Every structure is written in structure tokens, then in C-alpha cells.
Amino acid sequence: MHVVIINGSPRVQKYSNTEKIITAFTKGLSEKGITFETYAISNRKAWDDIREAYIKNDEILIALPLYVECVPGLLLEFLETLPQKDEHTRLSFVLQSGFAEGCQLRCGEAFLAKLPEYLGVRYGGCLVKGDNFGIRILDEEKQVQVTKPYQAMGELFAEGDGFFREEAEKFTGPEYLPLPMRLIMGLIFKTLAKKMFQKAAASWGCSVPLDEKVWETGHDRA
Ligand SMILES: Cc1cc2nc3c(=O)[nH]c(=O)nc-3n(C[C@H](O)[C@H](O)[C@H](O)COP(=O)(O)O)c2cc1C
């Protein structure tokens, strides 16, 4: 098996959490003797090369962050440039996000599950996991530590069943956080976090509340 891995984040590779996850995942592939090549769509100049790799290879993995509950716009733009292929090609996904609850990645997962059919290729499953906001602000040692579980998923993928095995399903962690934690977080977002976001917005020139209903007040700019 030879895997073409595409980082679908718009964030430059140096600062991309997805990139750190790919690094851990590929360690797992290497452990099992699987070869790979990696690309990043944040580098627009590489798009022709990435498309070429997609066309020439039959094992494709797109690793991507969840942006606003779904697939980043830049990745959608890239996907639109891909040609139709046939079922000899398998397309799998690693979908990761900031917030921890599995439930909030399910919309993105459902979108990705439909995508291979549109491209005429086979679906290899989608590995889903959140709680990754902080990876890029950690020092290198901690980054290796928190992304290490992805190495085991690389090893699992190397065995050839995509992400359909039980281990991949369990990897997501909790679908919902426990009720007390959700209540506390709800309170923080309604008070402290709301104040912080409003302050940040004001420093960028926003003069109306962030939850302003522009369709009711008639304001058309913040
Ligand atoms: C514009 C934007 C939108 C985001 N939307 C979500 C979201 O809806 N849910 C979530 O859990 N995380 C969200 N995140 C957090 C990212 O999914 C998370 O930080 C991810 O690890 C970023 O990976 P990257 O650095 O490779 O882009 C968002 C981040 C950005 C910048």
C-alpha cells in the first residue's frame, strides 16, 4: 500500500494542527512498512501536483479540520477541481476539530461520507476526533505526546480496512460531555467568554453586540 495524504486545512503547514496529526499518523504507517507522500492544500501552488498524485494513486487520505461545523471552504474549492475516477481508488478521511464532543463532527462526517460517490471512488471511512484546539501552541514534546494516539490509528489503517473497524469508532471518545460539564461550559460561554469575545470584537472596531440580530435592527455592518 502507498498512501497519498492531503492536509485539507487552509492554515499554513507550520501552524496547522492537522499537520501534527498527520506526522503522528504517518509514524504508524511507517511502523507497518507502508509508504506515503504528503501534500497540503494551504499551498495553492501545489494544487496541480496534488491533483496529479490523486489521479495516479489509488489510496488517498484527506486529513482536515472542522471549520464552522463542516469542511473548510478552501478544501471545497480544491475538491471541485478533482476529476472522476473509478472504484479502484479508495478515499478516506481524518476529521479533527477543536471542541471535544463527537456529536459536533457528525455533520462534517456525513458530508465526507457522500463525497467519494460524487467522485466515482470507494469510501474508506472517516476517523473522527475533537479536542485538538491547543496542539499548535504546545511545545514539540507535548505535541508528540497529545498526537501519539493517531500513530496507533496509522497502524490500524495500514492493516487495510480503512476506518471501519471498532477501534476507529471508539477513537472519537465521548459523543456528549457529561451534563454538569455542559452546564458549566454553557455558563462560561454566556458570561466570561461572551465578554472576552465582545472585547476582542470592539478592539477590531465592532460597535454593536456580537449577538445583534441585524435582520431586526437594520445594521448592515459591525
Ligand atoms: C474558522 C475556524 C472555524 C472553526 N470551527 C470549528 C467548529 O465548528 N467546531 C470545532 O470544534 N472547532 C472549530 N475550529 C477549530 C479547529 O477545528 C481546530 O483548531 C483544528 O485543530 C484546526 O486545525 P488546523 O490548525 O490544521 O487548521 C475552527 C477553527 C477555525 C479557524
In short:
The chain is an alpha/beta fold and 222 residues long. The protein has 10 helices and 5 strands. Helix content is 44%, strand content 15%.
Notes on the protein architecture:
- It is a single chain.
- The chain has helices at residues 17-31, 47-56, 73-79, 106-119, 140-147, 149-158, 166-170, 179-190, 192-203, 214-217, and strands at 2-7, 35-40, 59-65, 90-96, 122-129.
- The protein is an alpha/beta fold and 222 residues long.
- It has a 5-stranded parallel β-sheet with strand order 2-1-3-4-5, sandwiched between helices.
- Strand 1, helix 1 and strand 2 form a beta-alpha-beta unit.
- It starts with a strand and ends in a 5-residue tail after the last helix.
- The mean pLDDT is 95.
- It binds flavin mononucleotide.
Name given to the CATH architecture of the largest domain? 3-Layer(aba) Sandwich
Number of helices: 10
User: For the largest beta sheet, what order do the strands appear in spatially?
Assistant: 2-1-3-4-5
Look at the structure and give the CATH class of the largest domain.
Alpha Beta
What proportion of the residues is helical, as a percent range? 40-55%
Q: Using the coordinates shown, work out and report the CATH topology of the largest domain.
A: Rossmann fold
C-alpha geometry: globular
**Which parts are unreliable, with pLDDT below 50 for 5 consecutive residues or more?**
none
**Element order: H for helix, E for strand:** EHEHEHEHEHHHHHH
Q: Tell me the total number of β-strands.
A: 5
